[in-house]
Amino acid sequence: MVRYGRFPHQRLFAPLGEQDHARVRWAIRVTGLAGYEARPLSALSGGERQRAWIALCLAQQAELLILDEPTTFLDLGHQLEILELLQALNREQGLTVIMSLHDLNQAAWVGHRLVAMYAGQLIQAGPPAEVLTEQLLADVFRIRARVIDDVSEAHDEAQASPSPYFVPMSSLSTPAL
After folding, report:
1. Does residue 65 contact residue 96 with C-beta atoms inside 8 Å?
2. Closest CA to 53 of 39, 69, 38, 41
3. Contact in structure between 87 and 120 (CB atoms under 8 Å)
């Protein structure tokens, strides 16, 4: 599957060249899929499958990844693996990554900029600490939450600034029974 990423770089019906094969091997290695090359996509776990799709994009030499919920249906460990892979690709390869995430804590953790939208309208955009506020959570998501600045030792030193996270307290729209 990863070889499909080389199709835009091929002439019609031409076999893959050594440069193509090298790029495919690199994409497989970078995404942690070495040893999985012979497995069909259907035999991979959800996290492995996501990494295979990312490898296809890397083999294609994409400069921009636009991902819609890349962690959906993955267990927490695979979610973090995917997010850390995307962070590393951004940091080390200069790859621009735009993604939608409904887990706001994950978005604040990995994102340089957040965009909050409601009913198709832009509500706020900026660094996570400016966007992820108690007021925004109340207005957009109809929840009462506590926003906490992450200043722990576990904070990723590669990030420019600490990321906020929130703890939900209650819904603001609980129907009366």
Report:
1. yes
2. 41
3. no
Please state the pTM of the whole predicted model.
0.85
Judge whether 32 and 85 are in contact, CB under 8 Å: yes
Which of the four pLDDT bands, split at 50, 70 and 90, describes residue 9?
Answer: confident
Q: How far is residue 148's CA from residue 39's CA, in Å, rounded to a whole number?
A: 43
DSSP-derived 3-state class of residue 4: helix
Torsions phi, psi for 108 (to 5 deg): -70, -35
The pLDDT value recorded for residue 29 is: 97
DSSP state of 2: G
How many H-runs (helices) and E-runs (strands) does the chain carry? Answer: 6, 6
Q: Domain 1-100, what fold?
A: Rossmann fold (3.40.50)
Domain boundaries, the chain: 1-100, 112-177
Tokens of 99: 């993604």
Give residue 1's pLDDT band: very low, low, confident or very high (50, 70, 90). very high
Signed CA dihedral, 97, 103, 107, 110: sign only: negative
Taking only the tens place, the pLDDT of each residue in 105-137 is 999 999 999 999 999 999 999 999 999 999 999
Would you call 76 helix, strand, or coil by DSSP?
helix
